[in-house]
Amino acid sequence: MRDLSLYIHIPFCRQKCLYCDFLSAPASDDEKKSYVNLLRREIKKQSIFYQNHRVISIFLGGGTPTLLPAEWIGEILKQVQSCFSVAEDAEITIECNPGTVNKEKLENYITYGINRISIGLQSTDDEELARIGRIHDYAVFLTTYRLARGVGFQNINIDLMAGLPGQSVDSYRKTLACVVTMGPEHISAYSLILEEETPLYVNQSCYTFPTEEEDREMYRLTEKLLTAAGLYRYEISNYARKGRECRHNKVYWQRGDYVGFGLGASSMVADIRWKNPEQRESYAVCVERMPGKMESLQKSSFLDMLRKTGRLEIQELTETEQMEEFMFLGLRLMKGVDLESFRSTFGTSVEAVYAQVIARFISQGLLEQEGKWLRLTPRGIDVSNFVFAEFLL
Ligand code: SF4
Predict the structure, then answer these.
(1) Which residues have CB under 8 Å from 206's CB, separation 6+?
(2) What is the pTM of this model?
(3) Atom nearest to 97 CA in ligand 1
(4) What is the pLDDT of residues 324-341, one digit of tens each?
(5) How far is ligand 1, taken at its centre, from the CA of residue 321, in Å?
(6) How far apart are CA 22 and CA 169, in angstroms?
(7) Which of 114, 124, 283, 392 is the most exposed place for a label (fewest CB within 10 A)?
(8) How many angstroms separate the alpha carbon of residue 31 from the centre of ligand 1?
(9) How far apart are CA 340 and CA 155, in angstroms?
(10) Measured between alpha carbons, how far is 146 from 22 in angstroms, rounded to an integer?
(11) Ligand 1 atom closest to Cα of 20?
């Protein structure tokens, strides 16, 4: 049986954060309910293709999945359980915005088998939170975090952001210091990216952003303070206690198979990538057109089905593209890429394909090799995007 990960997209938020370009928006209860029904139909219909797969992780993301009544989350997961073979120890994560859960909701999540919760904090500074349009302040986050711990969540992630408008190195240091005292198992710390057409992008001249030097200092502080608190960096922007790395995200970086359900959700299975429609109406048509059963599960019939159901960006990756992804996704992990695995996957050595680029980066101190592992050095991490680009053939 092949391992499979499932992503379930819940595209609803109480209000849009000013930096956000994800597929999410406020919606009425009726819209939410009819979306959940559609989602359940999609899960059922898609499952026919994965009867020889074992689900090792499920990620309910968004948007804000915790905005939905807990029972609806239960129904979605029940649908998954009845259609897929889910491993007993599967990692099941729900993304949560502070203030959108109470004790009862959280207890229900545990009953449904959810064993990991990811809470979007971003900053402990209330002014910074208000400036980026978050729906909560730090006190609300604290209540949510404590409730989650109180009901028994033993695997909690906190999302943080650096480079926010009006953020100083000192305030970022305070955020890190406060967060580590709470003892989360996992922290994701990303830098703000100004996405075009978001209010923050459009009005950027009204804000003061940290300078490049301050940004770098925040970046260094993240590693210093989180490492000192016993969280180790296992990916460029992700830190965890040993054994608490996010299994679901590792599947993306290691090019495992995953299927996305819901509006605009992406999938990659057996080196075929595709995306669900992003408009509610075309998504409904897509689910309607999905076959209830398939005579043949051959690649050509599968691709044909993707096209007929209106999936977007359908791409059968060439071997070259697979090699590129293997390198630039795998190098995000601090452990590096497994050169033996490269050879067994592609039947050729990494040197045969990338000898020059690897030799150059090793001599420049941006990459290092230890046994079968090739990884970024600390200097290489600083310029990782530049390094990744050189692995495009
Ligand atoms: S909560 Fe997340 S998905 Fe929703 S608007 Fe804010 S950043 Fe976007």
Answers:
(1) none
(2) 0.96
(3) 1
(4) 999 999 999 999 999 999
(5) 31
(6) 27
(7) 392
(8) 18
(9) 32
(10) 28
(11) 8
